[in-house]
Design brief:
By secondary structure, this protein is mostly helical. It has helices at residues 27-44, 48-61, 66-79.
């Protein structure tokens, strides 16, 4: 626990587990947001072909992902 304004811990918290393993969320579903973020960033940089590719990967993982579809539309508009 935190000990007020002293800047020191009281030591009451358990140390982190060395065997921590995230469970319950498949890797692909965690990556879909990353691919979409990459697409969005590449759109801002006007690198539309690369952005469209990143959006495509996001949509392969989650075809109903609206944000990725919207970003893909921006990419395609920029390629014209």
């Amino acid at each position: 626990m935190w000990n007020g304004g002293t800047g020191r811990s009281t030591g009451a918290c358990a140390p982190p587990s060395r065997s921590f393993k995230p469970v319950g969320v498949p890797v692909s579903s965690r990556l879909v947001g990353a691919w979409n973020n990459r697409c969005s960033a590449l759109n801002v940089l006007h690198r539309y072909a690369e952005a469209a590719s990143a959006c495509g990967k996001a949509l392969q993982l989650k075809p109903d992902f609206t944000l990725a579809r919207n970003n893909l539309a921006v990419s395609r508009a920029g390629l014209k």
